[in-house]
Design a protein that fits this description.
Layout lengths: L2 H4 L6 E5 L4 H12 L3 E6 L12 E3 L5 H13 L5 E4 L16 H29 L2 E6 L13 H21 L4 E8 L2 E2 L1 H14 L3 H11 L9 E2 H12 L10 E4 L8
Parallel strand pairs: 1-2, 1-4, 2-3, 4-5, 5-6, 6-9, 7-8
Helix pairs in contact: 2-8, 3-4, 4-5, 6-7
The protein binds NADP nicotinamide-adenine-dinucleotide phosphate.
NADP nicotinamide-adenine-dinucleotide phosphate binds next to helix 2.
Organism: Actinomycetospora flava
Protein name: SDR family oxidoreductase
Family: Belongs to the short-chain dehydrogenases/reductases (SDR) family.
Length: about 260
């Protein structure tokens, strides 16, 4: 089989969490282009979603939400590819002393335990089949945490990375590959709206607003954040047979933002 064919996903069934916006939407679209039958989950189905029978509306930060997703996927016959893109931070600014127990649990449930619960439900059928791929989205904040408002998020992503590595070691002998990818800033729709607000509020051009965001992070050597299609390219590679010997790895995609090894 040629290397191009080994990138194809014909006949594979996939689930992409957080697949309605930003990186997740780009990943779902790319896996479909490559031939996979892709289920998507998020809390709200976007208006006019083109494949409503492949959309599962659920809150994956809850036990009930992940159980609902798992039962829909089991009805469909399970998945060969499971991409956990969902994640984010809602902690208000103010530093460590302001993060309540409740807020810690919100971040842990969204960024870590949702993946743990879905893997526990869906990976056993991969093991029975003798093949499968799991991909966890972490963040460069797991190695470069920002402390003002995202410390709990960063810690949850660190837990996800450690869990991902242990899971990879356990599952590789059963033919199931587990990896992670760690984005820095991403040019999502939400980011573009933020740039517009910053530009308007500070009398800057859009390019000037983007420059000020990069500077606030200590600079990004590439000079810009990653595009969602670049995130999708890496995800598609990692879940394809082209990556068949890659196990337990975490691929950083950050334009050089993390300044050390
Ligand atoms: N954006 C960045 O700069 C950046 C940087 C480093 C790492 N990351 C990581 O990369 C991943 C993708 O980020 P992104 O910015 O591309 O995502 P995004 O544009 O914020 O989209 C988030 C997706 O997750 C869904 N979602 C949010 N909360 C959910 C919940 N409780 N249950 C189910 N679905 C939920 C959203 O749909 P609904 O709102 O309809 O639920 C949406 O589809 C995340 O893991 C993030 O932590 C992002």
């Amino acid at each position: 089989m040629g290397n191009a064919d080994r990138g194809g996903l014909d006949g594979r069934r996939a689930l992409v969490t957080g697949g309605s916006k930003g990186s997740g939407r780009a990943v779902a679209e790319r896996l479909r282009e490559l031939g996979a039958d892709v289920y998507v989950t998020a809390r709200t189905m976007p208006d006019g979603y083109e494949l409503p029978d492949r959309f599962i509306a659920a809150d994956t930060s809850t036990v009930e939400g992940t159980a609902l997703v798992a039962s829909r996927i089991e009805e469909a016959g399970g998945v060969d590819i499971l991409v956990h893109v969902v994640g984010g931070s809602s902690t208000p600014p103010g530093g460590f002393a302001k993060i309540t127990d409740e807020q810690w649990m919100i971040e842990l449930n969204l960024n870590f335990l949702g993946a743990v619960r879905l893997d526990r439900a869906l990976v056993p059928s991969m093991v029975r089949a003798g093949h499968g791929v799991v991909l966890h989205f972490t963040s460069i904040q797991r190695q470069m945490p920002l402390h003002d408002s995202t410390l709990a998020y960063a810690s949850a992503k660190a837990a996800l990375r450690t869990y991902s590595k242990g899971l990879a070691n356990e599952l590789a002998p059963h033919g199931v590959r587990v990896n992670a990818m760690s984005p820095g800033g991403i040019e999502t729709e939400a980011y573009e709206r933020f740039v517009d607000r910053l530009a308007e509020g500070n009398g800057l051009s859009r390019a000037g607003a983007k420059e000020s965001i990069l500077e606030s992070l200590g600079g990004v050597p590439l000079g810009r954040f990653a595009r969602t299609e670049e995130i999708a390219d890496l995800a598609a590679f990692l879940v394809s047979d082209q990556a068949s010997a890659i196990v337990g790895a975490e691929y950083v995609i950050d334009g050089g933002t993390v300044p050390a090894i």
